[in-house]
Amino acid sequence: MNTPISDVIKENISHISFHTPGNDGTGMGLLSDKYDVTELSYTDNIIYRTGVIAESEAEVAKVFGSDNVLFCTSGSTTLINIGIRTLADEEPFLVYENAHGSVFNSLRMLGAKTYVSRGIDLIEAIKETGAKRVVITSPNYFGKTVDLELFKRVKEETNAKILWDCAHGSHFRFNDKFPKWDPECADVIIHSLHKTTPAMTSGAIMHVSDEYVERAKTWFAMIHTTSPFFPILMSIEQAIKYLVENGQEQFNKAIAAVEVFKEKVKNTCFNVYTIDDPTRVSIESELEGSVVADYLEINDIYPEMIYGNRVVLIVTPFNYDKLENVAKCLIEIDTGKTHGFPIGHPVRKESKYNRHRGSGTRAGKEFVGIKELVFGKDFMKVEIEDAVGHIAYKEVGMYPPGVPDIYSGDIITEEDVEYLKERVDSLFGLLDGKLLVVQENE
After folding, report:
1. Is 223 helix (H, G, I), strand (E, B) or coil?
2. Is-contact 165 190, C-beta < 8 A?
3. Residue 47: which residues within 8 A CB-CB, separation 6 or more?
4. Residues 6 or more apart from 305 whose CB is under 8 A from it?
5. Which of 76, 210, 322, 365 is deepest in the core (most CB within 10 A)?
C-alpha cells in the first residue's frame, strides 16, 4: 500500500513554520504512543467529566477568569456547532461582519433563522432584525479585533446573547501588549488553542457562562467524539501552563522580533504591518500573494495564509527567531536576486504533492447592509460555469480564511462565476470541484 500522507509529511518535516499550530511541531513533546490511552478508571470521560478532566478544566477557567471551561479535542469547528446549539433556545441569529464557514454550516444544520450584517452599526442591525443571538468573530485572520465596548453595548442596549468566536485570540490573556480579554463580554466564547498557543492541532476550549453551562454540556455530550485523543488534552494543560509561566516574557520577545523584521524590509517593495494583534504579520505588495508564498516555500518557509496580494504569518515564541529568514527572502525578491527563480509568475518547490494556490491581487467580495440567509432543503451539483442564475445552497469562499464570498440563498451571477473560476484551487464550499445549488424543484 502507498502511504502518501506519511510520505509528504516526512518529506517536509524540517520546514520553518509560520502557520498553525503555534508550537514547535512536537506538540509540547507529547507526540508519543505511550500517551495515547483511552477512557480508563484514572483518565476520566470527556463526555461525562467528573475526574481529572473536570479538575483540569476548572484550573484553566481560573486562569482565564471564566465561569466554566470545556476542553475539546476535535477543534473549534466542533465547539462552534456546540456553541450555536447551546444558544439556540431563541432565534433569530445575527452573524456580525465576517465569520468562519463553520458558523454558517452549524446554523444550516440547525435550520435557524439567520441574518448577516456587514458595514453597518451592530446595535441597529440587532434592532432591525430582532436578533436574539449574535455571533461576533474577533480577531479575524489578519489580527483585527472588535472593540470590547461593542460587546458591552450589545449587553446594555439589547437582550441579545453573544457567541464570541475568538479562535485566533487564545493568546491575548498572556501578554499585556495584546488586545484586552474579558470573558464577561459574551455568553459563549470559543478559543482554538492550537492556532496561537503551543497546544496540539485540534486542541480547543469553550468558555461558557453559568447560565448556559448545562445546555453546553448536554450538546457537548451529543456532538463531541466519545474517544478523545489524550495527548491533545495533555497539550491543552501544558500549553496554558507554559504561557502562564512564560507568556509575558516570550511574547515580548516575539513582538520585539516583529518590529526588527519590519525595520529590515521597510525600504523594499513590501509593506509589512500588524493591526491589533502585534504577532499577526501581513506582508503586502503588488505581487500576487501566491507568488511570494511560493518563493518562501522554495526556501522551506511556510506562511499561514495567502489572500489577494497579502501573505500572513503567525509569529509565536517558537518561530520569532526565524523572521530573519523571511526578511532575507523578501529582500531577494525585491532586489531580483532569487537564484534563478523568476518572480513574475508562480514558482513552486518541486514535489509531486504541491499545487499552486492562485490568489490574484484582490480577494474577497464585500456587501454593505443586512442579508437574510436561505437554507435550502436539498442540493444538486453544477459546474461553476453553469451556475449563473442558480441559488447557492451553501457558503463558498477562499480558504483560508474560510470567510464566505457567496452566501446561502444568493443568486449566482456571471461576476461570481468569473471570480470563482480564477480561484478554484483555493475555495471551500465546493464538492468535487462543483458548486452546490438549491435543487430546482424546491
Report:
1. helix
2. yes
3. 220, 221, 224, 226
4. 19, 141, 311, 312, 400, 401
5. 76
How many residues does the structure list for the chain? 442
Sign of CA dihedral 334, 316, 277, 405: positive
Q: What is the pTM of this model?
A: 0.92
Dump pLDDT digits (tens) for 130-188. 999 999 999 999 999 999 999 999 999 999 999 999 999 999 999 999 999 999 999 99
| Neighbouring C-beta atoms of residue 184, cutoff 10 Å | 15
Give the C-alpha separation, 63 to 244, whole Å. 8
DSSP string spanning 244-265?
Answer: HHHHHHHHHHHHHHHHHHHHHT
Q: Give SS3 for 71.
A: strand
CA distance 204 to 140: 17
Q: Which of 310, 313, 324 has its CA nearest to residue 280?
A: 313
Do the strands 379-382 and 305-307 form a parallel or antiparallel pair, or are they unpaired?
A: unpaired
Q: Backbone phi, then psi, for 68, in 5-degree steps?
A: -150, 150
**CB neighbours of 339 closer than 8 A, spacing ≥ 6?**
332
Q: How many whole angstroms from its chain centre is CA 415? A: 27
Instruction: Decide if 420 contacts 433 (C-beta within 8 A).
Output: no
| Per-residue pLDDT tens digits for 261-313 | 999 999 999 999 999 999 999 999 999 898 999 999 999 999 999 988 999 99
> What's the Cα-to-Cα distance from 32 to each of 7, 35, 81, rounded to whole Å?
19, 6, 30
In the chain, the amino acid numbered 401 is P
Q: Are 74 and 224 in contact (CB under 8 A)?
A: yes
Q: What is the mean pLDDT of the chain?
A: 92
CB 250 within 8 A of CB 239: no
Cell of 212: 448556559
For the stretch 191-216, pLDDT in tens is 999 999 999 999 999 999 999 999 99
